[in-house]
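Title: Comparing notes on inverse folding

I've been comparing how different people in this forum approach sequence design from structure. To keep things fair, I'm posting one structure and asking everyone to reply with a full sequence. Here's the target:
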């Protein structure tokens, strides 16, 4: 990803030259608007803390691990939140236009990295069973689609419409497909992904875990990911719009409270409507689930993410943020600045450390048991992994080094 900036030099210059714009507060102190909207990094950093913690579990309870089908568990929320926040970051990065060369390069790099990522995690390099779909591939689709759609609109209102169109299209697909299923209910044996993704990629090259018959990272799920990402873009452009007006009027970060709260409420209302609208035609409700990345799931999570961004905005984007807050937030912000590295790197690291050795031992369990403090194996192991990623990203942040495709 790019080094997304909330406001660039031109935005700040426009604000200073605007009629009636003031560079001082009511008390006469100089205002110093931050050129970067740090709340995005803060929320991404907190999401990555949860990612590392859940990924570090040597034994994952069923209620935390990915839901087997039509429900939502904590592990199901991490990647959709990552995608929603990526959409917000893309709004910042593409607010002035799209460079085709950069967009094509990023998409191709993400697709290639996705193949490598899947091969490493599976431990198989056999091309006849190489997994074509995956989280990085779905991310590549999101980046490409959102980049192209920025040629159509770069306003939050336009992106609200785009989000609605994606959500309605995906809901119609899921609800319409359910009509051919027994009882009108989507199952692993009867769902659009099980037919479409298998037809396009063949069963050997798609998702094989947790019960075959669907692909939570294939073409059908990509439509749901686009709902999440478009919602994030809408939030990003709204935040930029509010921030721009605030600079012109010398207003504080509180100006974003009502607009973002209203947008979060709209996402939640849309999730409710899309869930129950099919019942008006005698069909079953559209389920809230991650396995098919349903629109109600995507929009409800986007609503919660919007509120998190608002809280972060009020905390770290205001002028004169205190030293205590700056100090406490620094490691979280550093994690957020290198979100691509930490999110996928933590999965690769744990994938390698939990792979059995020839003697049957698991490296992660061996290390965790060896370094355990006062017998607290899991707590020590989780703490060490968090410390590793925080120290690494803090060092990279200090030297302004960020992983981007």
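Reply #1:
Here's my take.
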């Amino acid at each position: 990803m790019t080094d997304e900036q909330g406001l660039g030099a031109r935005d700040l210059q426009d604000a200073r030259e605007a009629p009636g714009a003031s560079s001082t507060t009511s008390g006469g102190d100089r205002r110093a608007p931050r050129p970067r909207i740090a709340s995005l990094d803060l929320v991404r950093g907190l999401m990555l803390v949860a990612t590392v913690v859940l990924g570090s579990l040597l034994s994952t309870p069923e209620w935390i691990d990915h839901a087997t089908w039509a429900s939502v568990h904590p592990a199901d929320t991490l990647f959709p939140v990552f995608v929603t926040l990526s959409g917000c970051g893309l709004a910042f990065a593409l607010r002035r236009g799209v460079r085709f060369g950069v967009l094509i390069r990023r998409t191709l790099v993400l697709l290639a990295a996705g193949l490598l990522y899947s091969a490493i995690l599976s431990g198989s390099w056999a091309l006849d069973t190489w997994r074509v779909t995956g989280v990085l591939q779905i991310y590549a689709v999101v980046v490409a689609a959102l980049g192209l759609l920025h040629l159509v609109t770069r306003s939050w209102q336009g992106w609200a419409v785009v989000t609605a169109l994606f959500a309605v299209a995906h809901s119609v697909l899921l609800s319409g497909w359910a009509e051919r299923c027994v009882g009108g209910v989507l199952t692993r044996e009867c769902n659009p992904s099980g037919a479409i993704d298998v037809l396009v990629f063949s069963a050997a090259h798609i998702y094989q875990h947790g019960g075959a018959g669907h692909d939570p990272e294939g073409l059908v799920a990509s439509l749901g990911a686009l709902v999440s990402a478009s919602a994030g873009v809408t939030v990003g452009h709204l935040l930029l719009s509010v921030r721009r007006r605030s600079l012109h009027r010398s207003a504080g970060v509180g100006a974003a409270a009502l607009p973002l709260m209203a947008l979060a409420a709209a996402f939640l209302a849309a999730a409710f409507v899309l869930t129950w609208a099919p019942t008006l035609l005698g069909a079953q409700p559209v389920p809230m689930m991650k396995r098919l990345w349903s629109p109600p799931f995507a929009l409800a999570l986007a609503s919660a993410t919007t509120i998190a961004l608002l809280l972060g905005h009020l905390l770290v984007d205001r002028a004169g943020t205190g030293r205590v807050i700056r100090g406490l937030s620094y490691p979280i912000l550093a994690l957020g600045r290198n979100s691509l590295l930490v999110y996928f790197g933590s999965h690769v690291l744990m994938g390698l450390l939990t792979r059995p050795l020839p003697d049957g031992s698991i490296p992660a369990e061996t290390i965790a048991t060896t370094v355990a403090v006062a017998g607290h194996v899991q707590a020590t192991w989780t703490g060490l992994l968090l410390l590793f990623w925080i120290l690494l990203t803090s060092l990279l942040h200090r030297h302004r080094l960020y992983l981007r495709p």
